[in-house]
Amino acid sequence: MNKEYFDIAKYDAHFSNKIMERGIEIYLSDKMSDLNQKDNVYTCKIKGSNIYDVSVSFKNNSDEVDTMTCTCPFAKEGSNCKHMYALLLKIKCNYTDKKLKKEIKQGLKEL
């Protein structure tokens, strides 16, 4: 995925405001674990009433979502869930954090 242009707001239309709010709450909690990336697929586990397996895959070298899956009951009914939104936030924030750290290190070298 080309994360240079990754914009979380472009996915908001796929989620209701309530789902996004709850996804943000999950992202800010300690409920997410085992974030992994393999090629264009990101996976994690999220603890709720059960532990849910969540994945997001992107189309070849783009930030366009190909598929999103979650093992929660809401997603099994065919809806995009709060767990999916939390994973999208995690992907974006991890990228931003890595980019910021790289810029800081480069700035230190230039001093």
Task: Please tell me about this protein's structure.
This protein is α+β, with helices and mostly antiparallel strands and 111 residues long. It has helices at residues 17-28, 73-76, 82-110, and strands at 32-38, 41-47, 51-58, 65-70. Strand 2 (41-47) and strand 3 (51-58) form a beta hairpin. Helix 1 (17-28) packs across helix 3. The longest helix has 29 residues, at 82-110. The N and C termini lie far apart (32 Å).
Task: Please tag this protein with its features.
single chain; 111 residues; alpha+beta; globular
Q: What topology emerges from the helices and strands here?
A:
Elements (H helix, E strand, L loop, with lengths): L16 H12 L3 E7 L2 E7 L3 E8 L6 E6 L2 H4 L5 H29 L1
Antiparallel strand pairs: 1-2, 2-3, 3-4
Number of helices: 3
Give Rg in angstroms. 15 Å
How many strands in all? 4
Structural class: alpha+beta
Residue windows where pLDDT falls under 50 for at least 5 positions: none
The span between the termini is 32 Å
Which of globular, elongated, flat, extended, rod-shaped describes the shape? globular
Largest sheet: 4 strands, antiparallel
The order of strands across the largest sheet is 1-2-3-4
Assign a percent range to the helix content. 40-55%
Q: pLDDT average, as an integer?
A: 86
Topology pattern, helix = H, strand = E: HEEEEHH
* SS strand fraction: 25-35%
